[in-house]
UniProtKB/TrEMBL annotation:
Substrate binds at D114, G115, S116, S117, N206. GO terms for molecular function: fructose 1,6-bisphosphate 1-phosphatase activity; magnesium ion binding. HAMAP family: FBPase_class1 (MF_01855). Homotetramer. Mg(2+) 2 binds at D111, D114, E278. It comes from the Bacteria. One of its GO terms (biological process) is gluconeogenesis. Residues 196-329 form the Fructose-1-6-bisphosphatase class 1 C-terminal domain. This is Fructose-1,6-bisphosphatase class 1. It catalyses: beta-D-fructose 1,6-bisphosphate + H2O = beta-D-fructose 6-phosphate + phosphate. It is found in: Cytoplasm. Residues 3-191 form the Fructose-1-6-bisphosphatase class I N-terminal domain. Its EC number is 3.1.3.11.
Amino acid sequence: MTSLTQFLIEEQRRFPQASGDFTLLLNDVAVACKAISRAVRRGGLSGVLGSQGTENVQGEVQVQLDVITNEIFVNALNWTGRYAAMVSEENDELIHITDGNPKGEYLICFDPLDGSSNINVNLSVGTIFSILHCPQGVEHPTEQDFLQPGTSQVAAGFCIYGPATVLMLTTGNGVNAFTLDEEIGEFILTRPNVRIPEDTAEFAVNMSNRRFWEPPMRRYVDECVQGKAGGREKDFNMRWLASMVAEVYRVLTRGGLFAYPMDEKIRDKGGRLRLMYEANPMAFIVEQAGGAASTGYERIMEIQPGSIHQRVPVILGSKNEVERLAAYHRDAN
Ligand code: F6P
């Protein structure tokens, strides 16, 4: 039985020069995820289901648990001395470390409760995070310091609160999944070296947007729907959970293609999903598991961010299907 703590310390030993900070900062995130898991699991017992009556920077209605889980995450990391600043989906501006607390060498971008519209219907939700180095010599990070491409991430992961709470983590050396053993309060390694099959017969997309999609996306999905009767040599199955963590977890378990592509309704926003705390961390995990992640036009991790809440189209999952869809985008051009 390997706990997350043991796993991180063993990873750290591979780098004799490591200070141990990196191990601790991932541990901080794990503690935050345990606290969020507890808050989510209590459901209606805490009397915190339902809308907060406010909107976040994205113009989305906040549920009470968006706000509560954001506070849990920030409070768990604010005092540790391992972060220099944070970016959250729920805050317009950067979150600075409270004056008087020590500052560390890392930046973190996170979505405390992804898929939170699913909370009231009791479906899986999750926390997504992406860790970057704070540029050297920067004492007071600004938005500019966060605007690093996904290829600069030093670690990324997500924690899914489903039938089990599972932390999926990469530090750039493959992907490992840890299941929370609630009785001992530890994440235990349950799926070492997660790999995504290169081929799949399953796709996930919000089909109600079909008429707004660009032609390459319509072509791809229409062919999947036609299956053997069309040009493809197999029939496809479709899933849509409206919870990115749950979709990506499924892709990491049995393969598949997940897409929130560009469409005409959201073109002026740049896409639907957020680059810094949704697309980049998921792209890092998926690539590390042998999959691919693209906007259709470019590799997600190579996008130079222009703002902390930037949105992008996302197509990720089994490599051969992502590449096929990217090829359809090239053909259309
Ligand atoms: O904010 C992101 C998110 O909740 C994702 O988790 C999910 O994939 C998507 O939005 C769902 O979008 P829609 O409501 O259009 O199905």
